[in-house]
Specification:
Elements lengths: L1 H20 L17 E6 L15 E2 L8 E5 L10 E7 L4 E3 L5 E2 L6 E6 L6 E9 L5 E4 L4 E3 L10 E3 L1 E2 L5 E2 L2 E2 L2 H4 L13 E4 L7 E5 L1 E2 L1 H6 L4 E2 L2 E7 L12 E3 L1 E3 L3 E11 L4 E2 L14 E8 L10 E2 L9 E6 L6 E10 L1 E2 L4 H5 L3 E8 L9 E2 L3 E11 L2
Parallel strand pairs: 3-8
Antiparallel strand pairs: 1-2, 1-4, 4-6, 5-7, 7-8, 9-31, 10-11, 12-13, 14-19, 15-16, 16-31, 17-18, 19-20, 19-29, 20-25, 21-29, 22-27, 22-31, 23-30, 24-26, 24-29, 26-28
């Protein structure tokens, strides 16, 4: 800013002297080299990088104030940001910039410092250029709260996950297929069930989801496997023998607009993928599934409605959904993220709590069809749901 003000005064002085010299026959010298060294505009060069921004306009910073030394771009996610990005600049006349305008730079480890040198070489100025994510309120789901279920008639005990509300009370917003799996067991303990707690999470405790055999009874019922699953909602045990997919009542009421879900996972598929008849499907490898859905929780008559295992990804009442597209096998805790895509949520309906949020984790992607690989194991921890402000 100082340079610009000084240059402005010099130009005024030059013009005054020039006017005064018109009555003289003296020679006019060439204008002195520019003393300014400021960034005027900055932008990410290339349409292929637009995917990392929620709006193409965010790829550009124009009319940067002379008082600013920090230039910050907002992107969808730092995790998905490529290691190299090309930034271009408009600078004051004659100034040079290092690193060069348009050069590829790595912004994933923090700000990159650019140094400008004025045309006359006497002045230098530094700018810090960085990328950041939107600051959003969030739900942090760490799976630290776990309790033993009541003992079933067959003597089984399994893990139940819950959250603690602002009032300090237990909130049973999580459900799993453990109650259904208990129907095929006698005296089963938590480590025998498809959904259980693990002490070795990414931080503290985590969730362990394992695809298991349901034994002779399950095979006779054409339900030979039980995939480990955990979801926001309720499990309706009465539906298990009538319509197993209706037993999973997906979703809890929410009054905020979800944007993104992130977390950490580990996954190892079982050795043999089998179909509903317990016959091996050659060449097929089991996959896990992580997804979220926002849907309308009231029909046109104002009656409460829910999604279930048979329509959670296909129902017309879905407003938008997020799906992790790739979850390759890994023995190391690996970050995942997914963005909601679909219609815009109605702000008035959001405020009234007229949407439900379903968040689902499963050790076998086709477990709802009772197909998968026994032994497939998915670990999940430190899940974060981000919302619009």
């Amino acid at each position: 800013m100082f340079n610009r003000l000084m240059n402005c005064k010099l130009k005024i002085l030059t013009v005054t002297m020039l006017i005064g010299s018109l009555s003289l026959a003296s020679c006019i010298k060439d204008e002195e080299p520019n003393k300014e060294c400021d960034i005027l505009n900055a932008w990410v060069q290339g349409e292929e990088y637009q995917q990392y921004f929620t709006d193409a306009n965010l790829m550009r910073k124009e009319n940067i104030s002379a008082t600013e030394s920090d230039i910050v771009f907002t992107v969808r996610s730092l995790a998905s940001l490529p290691k190299q990005l090309p930034l271009s600049f408009d600078v004051t006349e004659g100034a040079t910039i290092e690193p060069a305008s348009g050069s590829m730079q790595d912004f994933t480890n923090g700000p990159v410092t650019y140094t400008l040198t004025s045309q006359d070489g006497q002045y230098k100025r530094q700018y810090r250029v960085s990328f950041t994510e939107p600051v959003l309120p969030s739900y942090d789901l760490s799976f630290e709260n776990v309790a033993l279920s009541e003992k079933t008639l067959s003597g089984c005990v399994y893990h139940e996950f819950y959250e603690i509300g602002d009032n300090g009370q237990r909130q049973d917003i999580w459900a799993s297929g453990n109650p259904g799996a208990a129907l095929t067991m006698n005296n089963g303990q938590p480590d025998a069930f498809p959904t259980m707690s693990t002490e070795n999470g990414y931080k503290g405790k985590g969730v362990c989801l394992k695809t298991i055999s349901t034994g002779a009874l399950g095979e006779w019922m054409k339900k030979p496997i039980a995939a480990g699953n955990l979801f926001l909602g309720k499990f309706i045990l009465e539906q298990v023998l009538v319509n197993a997919l209706k037993a999973t009542q997906m979703g809890i009421q929410i009054n905020r607009d979800p944007v993104r879900v992130t977390g950490y996972y580990k996954y190892r598929p079982g050795a043999k993928f089998t179909n509903v008849d317990m016959k091996e499907v050659p060449g097929k490898v089991d996959e896990p599934n992580i997804y979220a859905v926002l849907y309308k929780n009231k029909d046109k008559d104002g009656k409460e409605q829910f999604l279930h295992g048979d329509d959670v990804l296909s129902s017309p009442i879905i407003v938008k959904k997020a799906v992790v597209k790739s979850l390759p096998p890994t023995d190391e805790w690996t970050r995942f993220e997914m963005f909601f895509e679909g219609e815009e949520a109605d702000p008035e309906m959001v405020a009234k709590g007229e949407y439900n949020l379903a968040l689902v984790f499963s050790s076998s992607k086709e477990g709802d069809k009772f197909e998968g690989a026994i032994g497939s194991t998915l670990y999940v921890d430190e899940v974060n749901v981000s919302f619009e402000k």
